[in-house]
Each structure stands twice: as C-alpha cells, then as structure tokens.
Amino acid sequence: MNDFYDPKKLKIGQNVGVELDPYILNYPMDNHKTTWVADQGGRPFVLRFFQSNKGKVEDFLQNARKYAGVKHPAITPNYPPFYSKLWVFSCSAVCGGENLYSFLGKYPDGAPLNVVIGLFDNIAKALDQVHKNDLLHGHLDLNSIHVVNGLGLMTGFGVHNWMSQIDDSVMDARFFPPEYLKKGQKRTPASDSFAFMKLLMAALLGESILDKDFTTSLPDTHPSLSDTTWGRLLKWSRENERHRPKSLVEVIRIIRANLYKPEVSNSSVAKRAVKRYVRNTKPKIIVICTFVAISILAAIILWPSTPPEKITPAPKTVPKVEVITPFEALPQTLEEPLISGGTAPKIEKIPPATFIMGDQNRMGDDNEKPPHEVDIPNGFYISKYEVTFDQYDKFANATGRELPPDNGWGRGQRPVINISWYDAKAYTTWISSQTNQEYRLPTEIEWEYSARADSSTSFWYGNTVKPGYSVCDSCGSQWDGVSSAQVGSQASNPLGLFDMHGNVAEWVEDCYHDNYDGAPTKNEVWLANQCENRVLRGGSWFDIPRVGRSATRYRAEPVLKASNWGFRVVRIIQQSNGLSKSE
C-alpha cells in the first residue's frame, strides 16, 4: 500500500502532481485542507485529495473517473483524477459566482418565484437526466450550489460518492435524508430529490426554515402559490422515500404555472388547520384522538350546568422587540482585530447609492461604454488605503507563502505589489478567517462608485490631474514614473478613501468584458463562462493620467503580476434585512 501525501501537511504555494507541469496550491477551501483551489498553466482548478480514513483509493479513482463523464450546463465539469505513488486527487473546474447560502441571504423571507425558477430550473433538468443513469450528486446543500447571473450551478458533482459514509464534514447535516443516518448508508437518486426539496423550501421560505422541523413547521399556504401547488410541494417534502418527487422538472413546472396563472386561495383557516393536522399525524393517533374528542363532547352535553366563575383578566404583557442596529448607527471606520494578533486593514463605511457608471466625459475607450445607471442597494465597507506590504507580509508569513519582491523601494506602508489576482483573493480568504467576517475584492461597481465619490468628472476632484491628489506619470508628485508611494501620501476623496487614482492599479472581483452591453444594473460580481481575464482599476505611478480616471478599466490574466498592481478589500455588512451580500 502506498503512503500518499498527508493533506494536512499541504501548504499554500506548494507544487503537487507532475514536476514538469505542476498544480500550484492557491488556498484551501475547507478546514481539513483536503480541497484546494490550485493553478496549472494559468488556469484555476479545484483539487480534492484522497483521504485514507474515508474509504479505499480504488473506490476514489473509480468514482472520479465515472463522474468525469457527466456533462450538463448546470454541472461544473469534473476531470480525470491524478494518481502517482505520492499524489492522489480529483480535479474539477472552478465555478464563479456566490454559493447559494450567500445568495439566499438576500431573501430572508423567501425569494420571488421568478428567482426561484431561475435558480432551480436547470438543476432540476440536470438531476433528472443523470438520475436516469443511476448517478447522483450525493451531497446537495447550500454550499454545493453556486449562483452565476441568477442561474444555479452544481459543484463537486458526485465527488464524495466513493466515501464509505458521507458525514457533516462534506455535507450540511440539515440536508441528510433519513437513509444517511443509518449505519449502512444507502445512497440513491432519491437522496438527491430529498435534498432538492429542502433547498427549494429554503428558497421559497427563507434559509432559516432549515433549522425547523419540516414535519410540523412548514406553513399551510404560500402567498405566491395556489393551495393545490403548495399541497403538492408539502407532500414531496416528506421524509419517506415514497413521497419524494419522481421528476424534479415537474416540480419546477407546477411552480412556473403559478408564475403566469396564479390561483386564488379559497381554503378557510379551519380547513387548513385540519389539513396540517392530518398531514403531520399518524393514522392510529387520528383514530384515538377522534374517539377522545367524541367522549369529551358527550361529557360536555350531559354534564350538569354550574354558574360561571368570575374571571379576572391577566395584565397585558408587551412583547419583547429585538432592537437591530441600523446601517446609520454602524461605525464609520473599523479596524477589526485578527485572531493571530494585529488588525485587518482600516475600512470606511460606504452608504447605498445609485450612480452612472462608465465614460461620462467622452474621453474613454469602448470598454467604458455605454454609460449606465447602477444601483447599490446595500452599504459596504471598503479599505481606506491599498493593502500594504506590512499587511500582506503578515498573511504570507502566516500561510507559508513566498514574500513578493518590493523592487528595492521598501516595504512597510507602501502598497503591496507583484501579486496576482489569486494572491489577492487568498489574502481576502485569510482575513475573513482571521476576523470571522466576510472580506473579498471590490466589485467593479463598488470600486467605481468609491472612486467617483458622487462625482461625474474624470477624477473625483475634476477633469484634469492636480498636484497632491494622485501619483502617476505626470501627476505632479515626487514618485511619478519612478515608484509607488506610501499609502495615503495624497489627498483623500470625499468618502475618506486614499489613492483611488494612481499609486498602484487595483484588482477587482469581476471577469473582464469588452464593453458594458448586458452589464449588471445592480451591485454584483459580473462573471463569464470563460473568465480568462480579470479587471484592474485606478491606474498607477507608471501610467499616464487618463489611465487613472474613475471609468478606466483594463484586463489582465489573473496569474500575472506587476510592480504597479496591488489591491484593496471590501468587507460585507451583515444587515438585518439579509441583503448585504453582493457576491
């Protein structure tokens, strides 16, 4: 038996696989370090390493090869596994967007029907198709579905089906079908159907419904669905396998029918109560309760009457109302403590807004057009300064990454340079784990609004550069065309942010698109099926002034690094309405 490499010993930046064309580990996706995002030849992949305590290596390889043949637009592709005397891992494509858990946070009381249909329509078709071949996802939950432009995509399809037991380390236990709780774990396409119905209910009613008992806590009606439709969904959501839907496409079909021709609910409260009682009660108990009810009724009729007692009304109690801190009451600036010591980058609160994005002054390139109105419905925090060498070096030392070179200009409070988009993303992942908050790169929308600071001019301070406001080639500073400057060396904009124009160009979350045709009109990450390039914003010490305008955007492969590229971070605000997440 081979002694394969222990996944617990894997480190960021480590080469795995063949020496001539290795995968370079970028960052782990789980606490056990068994799943990683890695780069190979400039392309990102998800690697899942064999775990000897979960099953046999033969089963791992056979399962990975079997599911590498599954093809569907709603399924993120799996590729053949890698096997050698040292390494055993499966390989999958990276899926963009945000996971379903994050997405449903925007709809705490349930998403609109059109949103729900968009999420699950293709997933239902994919599952029905693969189930015919007796294949299954096996661990469907909120984290195994990503949302890209409103469409649901399944990730890691079938990758854990080699395991002798699927446990809560790979699947949210709230989605376990009853058969998963038995000693000899039985997995069939019906297991996917059970999890699918739970996901659907979470989308229709809000994610918090998953923490309740489905047999007693599902409501009797749904405001957007007819009683007939809702009754069928309730039946399909029962635990017993015989109640689970045979066709998931049919589930979505009846929901879609309500979208166009909703029926009016005509059930009385009493009738719905009886239905709920019957639905949640075993037949034997119903018979016993009926007998008891008849006996009580007879006793009431035959019992001799007595004068009524005088009842003293109890004092009214005022229900306790939970006070939620409004957005306006949150601190304007924050420096959150890190678990390992020190603080995260200082961040500035940015309020909700609507603004015109793109070239408004007829000075820009085609990729800045057409100008269009964009809504940022929820506020966010963004770092006041570009991430510095001090901040990045702390992360690199903690995670075993190689320190990026400073070109001999010095480190400290200068913005970190010579880092790729993947490096920047890995930093945000680390900061998130260190603060127990959610950090990421800015969206293009967030970045441009933060740079403009309610202006419509080329720069926040006007249409031409001025000394003391920017560091660029011919901007009037001592660092122009020579090197980066310490962060905050120039004036801040009205939102309290420094170096939005010049110093170093900044990576953002979005994939690059040639223009704004079809661009989002509400704050979100704009992704693409083939995301070969990411976006840089803001210009740098090396660039001419027009490259540093608020609207300027240019592309670069995410693996590339340069001495005039850096980044800043956004911190999500967890608001009471659940609408804070835009990624």
From TrEMBL:
Signal peptide: none annotated. Residues 1-278 form the Protein kinase domain. The keyword Electron transport does not apply. InterPro entries: CTDL_fold (IPR016187), Kinase-like_dom_sf (IPR011009), Prot_kinase_dom (IPR000719), Sulfatase_Mod_Factor_Kinase (IPR051043), SUMF_dom (IPR005532), SUMF_sf (IPR042095). GO terms for molecular function: ATP binding; formylglycine-generating oxidase activity; protein kinase activity. The chain crosses the membrane at residues 285-303. Keywords: Membrane, Transmembrane, Transmembrane helix. PROSITE patterns: PROTEIN_KINASE_DOM (PS50011). The keyword Transmembrane applies. PANTHER family: BLL6746 PROTEIN, SULFATASE MODIFYING FACTOR 1, 2. This is PKc_like and FGE-sulfatase domain-containing protein. It comes from Marinomonas primoryensis.
